Amino acid sequence: MSETNLPPVIQEMLNPGFYPHPVQEPIKLIQTHVSYVLLTGDYAYKLKKTVNFGFLDYSTLELRAHFCRQELAMNKRGAAEIYLEVLPITQTDNKLELGGSGEAVEYTLKMCQFPQDNLLINLFHQGKLTEEMVEDLGRLVAQFHRKCPTNDYVLSFGEVAKVRQAFDENYEQTAKYIGLAQTQEQFDATREFTDKFFATKQEVLNSRIKKGWIRECHGDLHLGNICLWHDKILLFDCIEFNEPFRFVDVMYDVAYGVMNFLVGNRPDLANAYLNTYLEESGDWEGLQVLPLYVSRQAYVRAKITSFLLDDSGVPDADKEQAKVTASQYYKMALDCTKLGQGNLIIMSGVSGSGKSTVAKKIARQNNAIHIRSDAVRKHFAGVSLSERGGDELYTPEMTERTYSRLLELGILLASAGYSVILDAKYDRQSLRKPVIAAAEKHHLPLQILHCTAPESILRDRLNSRTSDISDATANLLTNQLATAEAFTEEEKVFVKTLDTTQDLTAQLK
């Protein structure tokens, strides 16, 4: 669109003299199908286009003002540092003014401008997004979700009929791309998965409602809507215009990032993000619905990309690339529904023996779900993972409850097709026996990884441990070593012993 075809307000906002502050010239204009964004240097100004797409209605000045305020309020939750204020653009004697006292003719959302290189999707593509940063993101998203409100109205959006509506619409809108960007077999198999899920998993979806996991979430939490600014991760540009898009299962939000990492061929980062989120939130049961939502997010990206094939203004070369990209997303939408054979791994060893280090390494390599007893205990007690627990966390009753929960989650998730690592001491036969019995009952492959190290190394590790959720200290070690029970002959068939002072890669082969 040439500058002369732009609305008069936008033409005026491209003039540096319009602003009451210094600007970086030339002012840059970015357009999406629903908004204009003007980049002035220190600040960005976002205006909503006069459009009505049904699911989004900005057709009147009153609606645009309302949704500007809504966007400001909602994004204060995850990016208060970026979102500043809503300002009227006023007119007095044919002169437009930012925040003036005349009649409002438009509204704009004023934001701090940050470098586009700081978007996590760009850091990811540049190879600058580290595992540690991804783990920080997982914790942050879990903490964000913890604060997201819910009520009976919001929870109603988790009902099967409402959840599946968007899936059915996606299939209706993409059937015409069969043979262009996806095969009939892919289309049928993806739809069969979701149809079967909604038919057979109603109890799972209902449990998500009962446990309050349907919340007023972000709604569009892909890596392009997350930035690193002033050494802080910020979640911005959440959905303000459509309730069904943001009144969703928390796993709907998580699925975006998982999908981004998988499409980028980094399953290890997807695993780091997911496991850190699960540990911080305690929502391991959410894994039962995660494949549904990862498939949906991938399918939506495929659909949106497919729409380019219908646009006469898109060059043929771009359409060919769109076909390739859409095909990749359609393939992922199907592939992520296939979990396969689940299995159980239980760690064993005293504190400081390297159990969590080994478990984390295996999880990243094999896309396994890593569940630590320390996290389970603290969630039971309502204690932050970053806080030190009191004696009440370590009573025999709490220990029994913790190991029962580990077993419950292990069987649930392994039966659903996940590889699951239960990370606890498992230093007594009475703790190991129920796991072995349950694995055999459910026909799940089982392995026990027994981690060892010399006592002097164990003490050094415990004395130097910092920033870990475990409360174990070196003064517990003597008793742990004295009370640990040897493996029985029946148990030994499952056991692999690891010397964690030696190279683990060779030992884990």
Low-confidence stretches: none
Strand content: 15-25%
Structural class: alpha/beta
- Cα-to-Cα separation, first versus last residue: 59 Å
Major sheet attributes: 6 strands, antiparallel
CATH topology of the largest domain: Aminoglycoside 3'-phosphotransferase, Chain: A, domain 2
Silhouette: globular
Subunit organisation of the chains = single chain
Describe, in plain words, how this protein is organized in 3D:
- By secondary structure, the protein is an alpha/beta fold.
- The chain has 3 domains: 3-113, Phosphorylase Kinase, domain 1, CATH 3.30.200; 120-335, Aminoglycoside 3'-phosphotransferase, Chain: A, domain 2 (Alpha-Beta Complex); 343-507, P-loop containing nucleotide triphosphate hydrolases (Rossmann fold).
- The chain is built from 21 helices and 15 strands.
- It has helices at residues 8-13, 61-79, 120-125, 131-147, 152-155, 160-174, 184-200, 202-210, 243-246, 250-263, 267-281, 290-306, 316-335, 355-366, 373-381, 396-415, 429-441, 455-464, 477-483, 489-492, 504-507, and strands at residues 28-31, 35-39, 43-48, 83-92, 95-98, 103-112, 214-216, 226-229, 232-235, 247-249, 343-348, 369-372, 419-423, 446-452, 495-499.
- It has a 6-stranded antiparallel sheet. A 5-stranded parallel sheet has the order 12-13-11-14-15, with helices on both faces.
Search tags:
509 residues, alpha/beta, Phosphorylase Kinase, domain 1, Aminoglycoside 3'-phosphotransferase, Chain: A, domain 2, Rossmann fold, 3 domains, 6-stranded antiparallel β-sheet, 21 helices, globular
